[in-house]
Design brief:
With 221 residues, this protein is α/β, with parallel strands linked by helices. It is 34% helix and 22% strand. The structure holds S-adenosylmethionine.
Length: 221
């Protein structure tokens, strides 16, 4: 696999972590979330022939929940996570293309995809506002975007403690202090549904819809 991602300082530690020790304990963390993840992905109304983008596809935990007949482009900065995803899904009768690519700079034209799945990605990527705007750019007007993540407001009393943890976590793995509204602010999307994504309500599933051509036109009048 050609290595196409320009090494950026902000991604170096994360690439290193996801290429070395994280793949070993990641399956243990994901096991309890399987059913919750499936429920969230089921919010999307898939049609045969849809093209779906999954930024930060990782080791491919979303892929078994996507119907055959839907084409998938998964992107990630970790070759090891992508290799695991490729191996796990080698027998799936589905068109899946896995790319080494930076989610903050997607190498796809505007309005390419019918749907996007952002599972535990916006809390991992360095700049979630930029990464989300890239997703909105490549999704077609009227297309669906699913976010499954722990984008929460931290209670005031916990903020100083969480900020310290975050300094270490955000460069290696994921951040714990990102807020949903801050990430989607100013983007042409509406939130259509919100569901619980784990037993504690720490993770949530959000179904968003990108503004259609007609809605955008009406808003201008
Ligand atoms: C917490 S994992 C989530 C993986 C998968 N979506 C899931 O739900 O299991 C986050 C993934 O995002 C990837 N990632 C982090 N920053 C990225 C970036 N700038 N562009 C693409 N992928 C990125 C990591 O390598 C990792 O595989």
């Amino acid at each position: 696999m050609g290595f196409k991602v320009a090494f950026k300082l902000k991604n170096i530690l994360k690439q290193l972590s996801f290429n070395t020790f994280i793949p070993f304990f990641y399956p243990m963390m994901m096991l309890p979330l399987r059913g919750w993840r499936r429920k969230s992905i089921a919010l999307l109304s898939f049609n045969a022939g849809d093209r779906v983008i999954i930024p930060g596809v990782g080791s491919g935990y979303d892929l078994p929940h996507i119907p055959v007949g839907v084409t998938v482009d998964g992107i990630d900065i970790s070759e090891v996570m992508l290799a695991i995803a490729r191996n796990k899904n080698r027998h799936r009768k589905q068109e899946i293309t896995l790319h080494i690519m930076d989610g903050e700079n997607l190498d796809f034209p505007d309005n390419t995809f019918d749907k996007a799945i952002l599972d535990l990605f916006l809390t991992c990527v360095y700049d979630p506002v930029r990464a989300f705007s890239e997703i909105v750019r490549v999704v077609k007007p009227g297309g669906e975007i699913l976010i499954y993540d722990h984008l929460i407001s931290v209670p005031k009393w916990a903020a100083p403690f969480m900020s310290v943890i975050d300094v270490v976590m955000k460069y290696n793995f994921c951040t714990v202090i990102r807020v949903f509204d801050d990430v989607i602010k100013g983007q042409p999307v509406t939130v259509a549904r919100e569901i619980k994504g784990d037993p504690f309500g720490f993770i949530k599933g959000f179904l968003l819809r990108k503004t259609s051509w007609i809605e955008a036109h009406q808003a201008l009048r």
